[in-house]
Design goal:
With about 160 residues, the chain is α+β, with helices and mostly antiparallel strands. α3 crosses α4, α3 packs across α5 and α4 packs across α5. About 50% of the residues lie in helices and about 15% in strands. It is built from 6 helices and 3 strands; from the N terminus they run αααβααββα.
């Protein structure tokens, strides 16, 4: 191969990769525009979201901003209606698994949106339930259905590891 041919081949591959990345970004933006946003929901339903404070015997007043940010990160990841384990949500948000679990519980509360958070046991490759491993899925309260079009199930063995 000549250096010119090799250079043109590399440039062509880079161009294809860039075009693919742009298409993925555009697709993601269109999907996000279609998803109900937690802040939009709050504006449309102010009476359901009267006091968005966190409660519990161990919660200090200064925890509010940190927990609100965690809640926003968990919601941002789960709003697409896909099944995910606590481990996977934790990886995507950089929040500890116990915190992710608590924020999923918060999303069920009326003051945080009243979402349905579904839970299913993850199965191994043979279809046998993996003890103690669950996947979660957010269902929007207003729509009553998942925000995603497909009905996938929590059998992603990569997350089970």
């Amino acid at each position: 191969m000549t250096p010119l041919f090799l250079s043109l081949s590399i440039i062509g591959c880079v161009g294809l990769i860039m075009a693919s990345i742009i298409q993925l970004i555009e697709y993601g933006c269109r999907k996000m525009e279609q998803q109900p946003d937690l802040l939009d929901w709050i504006e449309r339903n102010p009476k359901r979201y009267e006091n968005p404070t966190f409660d519990g015997s161990t919660i200090e007043p200064e925890d509010g901003a940190r927990l609100q940010q965690q809640l926003a990160r968990v919601y941002a990841v789960m709003r697409d209606g896909e099944w995910r384990t606590l481990k996977r949500i934790s990886e995507l948000t950089d929040d500890p698994e116990p915190s992710v679990s608590a924020r999923l519980r918060d999303l069920r509360k009326p003051k945080f949106g009243g979402y349905t958070v579904m839970r299913e046991q993850v199965k191994d490759q043979d279809g046998k339930p993996i003890p103690g491993l669950f996947a979660y899925r957010l269902v929007h309260a207003d729509a009553g259905t998942s925000a995603s079009a497909g009905e996938s199930h929590p059998t992603d063995n990569a997350e089970a590891a």
